[in-house]
């Protein structure tokens, strides 16, 4: 009998200014996986050595660039990690995965977080593992090692998260190189090894309220910036003043975004940051001017503005004037020879879902 199901995972914007590696919001742009398993069609599916036939819709971001071999593609490689931790070596015979991905890659909208969450859910579903979302989060955190995007994509809404203190043995397990966690593209050879299992309950989170009048404008430059490169420019240590600056704003921001009516005099300054944005300006032309020159007094309706995730996307939160705000940012990028697209998004409250069909 054929089994079919659909996995849906939202994009996310992490940090929201002062909440570096802490805050994240799921956004209404969804990675979708249509999965079918039909053992009778196993010989017809043209599957790879792990029994998986993977394809992307032509409109998908990454259609031309992402690998389709299941031990090379981030989604299916993650699923294989979950399966192999549970001593299941490959996908069930006759597995087809069709991906539709509207989340731009390498732009700070959580494409890799969504891919990892989708991969963990895929592994759990095909392996019939029946994990809770909390346990699935542990698996995600072995791969994407900061919790902000992953938590927002998995749980949905506006989240604050941290990693619990780990024992020295757990630290060792979690800090294992990624190449030893995810199966390496092997040309069909499976080493038979069980990869390192994640420690339990690593991620802790809360879901905040969000005032539904507040919409998210994403201004998306036409160039990619890998999260790894964008983390590479950050310092190893900070001054007490800079840490306190961010903590003060973080504490106010999480409640300010729930209040009605939203108060720009509170939200705008509470979205300032001294921990990541100032260092990332070297990678994103025009970032400093954009973040400092658009204010609620020049653009009524604007509440706050920040880098989305590791960038280069800019996130503006606003109640009104969405197109004018987006066009102003697009024009400022254009002066630096950077073309952009923009999207008006809402929080995705539900997070990742699986639906049998
Ligand atoms: N849907 C997807 N399918 C396959 N690989 C993906 C997908 N989404 C993201 N990736 C991988 O993740 C990379 C982007 O990750 P990252 O640098 O963290 O940027 P982002 O800010 O978009 O998460 C892509 O270049 C690609 O290798
Ligand atoms: N806190 C991380 C968030 C990365 O988000 P992404 O959407 O760019 O993957 C960071 O700022 O590095």
- At the first level of CATH, the class of the largest domain is Alpha Beta
Please count the helical segments. Answer: 12
Oligomer: single chain
- Characterize the overall form: globular
Q: Major sheet, described briefly? A: 7 strands, mixed
Look up the CATH topology of the largest domain.
Ribosomal Protein S5, domain 2
- Domain count, please report it: 2
Strand and helix order: EEEHEHHHEHHEEHHHHHEEHEE
- The pLDDT mean sits at 94
The share of residues in extended strands comes to 15-25%
Function: Commits homoserine to the threonine biosynthesis pathway by catalyzing its O-phosphorylation.
Enzyme class: transferase
Family: Belongs to the GHMP kinase family. Homoserine kinase subfamily.
Pfam family, one: GHMP_kinases_N
3D structure, described in words:
With 357 residues, this protein is an alpha+beta fold. It folds into 2 domains: 3-205 and 348-356, Ribosomal Protein S5, domain 2 (2-Layer Sandwich); 209-345, 2-Layer Sandwich (Alpha-Beta Plaits). The protein is built from 12 helices and 11 strands. It has helices at 74-85, 111-126, 133-143, 147-155, 168-174, 178-181, 227-232, 240-256, 264-270, 277-280, 287-293, 322-334; strands spanning 3-14, 23-37, 52-56, 95-100, 158-163, 203-208, 215-221, 302-307, 314-318, 340-345, 353-356. Strands 1, 2, 3, 4, 5, 6 and 11 form a 7-stranded mixed sheet that branches. α2 (111-126) crosses α3. The radius of gyration is 21 Å and the shape is globular. The two termini are 13 Å apart. The mean pLDDT is 94. The structure holds adenosine-5'-diphosphate and ligand LJ64HWYM. Residues 14-15, 20-21, 108-110, 112-113, 146, 148-149, 227, 230-231, 276, 309-310 line the site of the ligand N[C@@H](CCOP(=O)(O)O)C(=O)O. Residues 73-157 form the GHMP kinase N-terminal domain. It holds the Pfam family GHMP_kinases_N. One of its GO terms (molecular function) is ATP binding.
């Amino acid at each position: 009998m054929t089994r079919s199901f659909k996995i849906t995972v939202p994009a996310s914007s992490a940090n929201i200014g002062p909440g570096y590696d802490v805050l994240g919001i799921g956004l209404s742009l969804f990675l979708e996986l249509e999965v079918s398993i039909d053992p009778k069609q196993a010989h017809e599916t043209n599957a790879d050595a792990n029994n998986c036939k993977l394809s992307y819709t032509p409109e998908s971001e990454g259609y031309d660039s992402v690998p389709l071999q299941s031990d090379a593609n981030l989604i299916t490689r993650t699923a294989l990690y979950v399966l192999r931790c549970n001593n299941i070596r490959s996908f069930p015979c006759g597995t087809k995965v069709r991906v539709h991905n509207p989340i731009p890659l390498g732009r700070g909208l959580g494409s890799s977080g969504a891919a990892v969450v989708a991969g963990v859910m895929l592994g759990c579903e095909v392996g019939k593992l029946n994990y809770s979302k909390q346990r699935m989060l542990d698996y995600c955190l072995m791969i994407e090692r900061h919790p902000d995007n992953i938590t927002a994509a998995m749980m949905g809404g506006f989240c604050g998260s941290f990693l619990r203190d780990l024992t020295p043995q757990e630290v060792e397990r979690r800090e294992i190189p990624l190449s030893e966690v995810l199966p390496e593209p092997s040309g069909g050879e499976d080493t038979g090894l069980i990869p390192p299992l994640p420690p339990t309950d690593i991620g802790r989170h809360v879901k905040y309220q969000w005032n539904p009048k507040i919409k998210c404008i994403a201004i998306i430059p036409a160039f990619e910036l890998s999260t790894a490169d964008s983390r590479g420019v950050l310092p190893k240590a900070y001054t007490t003043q800079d840490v306190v600056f961010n903590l003060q704003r973080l504490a106010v921001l999480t409640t300010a975004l729930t209040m009605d009516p939203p108060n720009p005099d509170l939200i705008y300054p509470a979205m300032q940051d001294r921990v990541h944005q100032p260092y990332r300006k070297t990678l994103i032309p025009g970032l400093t001017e954009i973040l400092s020159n658009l204010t609620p007094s020049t653009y009524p309706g604007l509440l706050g503005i920040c880098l989305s995730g590791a960038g280069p996307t800019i996130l503006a939160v606003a109640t009104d004037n969405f197109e004018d705000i987006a066009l102003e940012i697009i024009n400022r990028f254009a002066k630096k020879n950077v073309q952009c697209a923009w999207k008006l998004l809402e929080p995705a409250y539900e997070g990742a879902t699986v639906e049998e069909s």
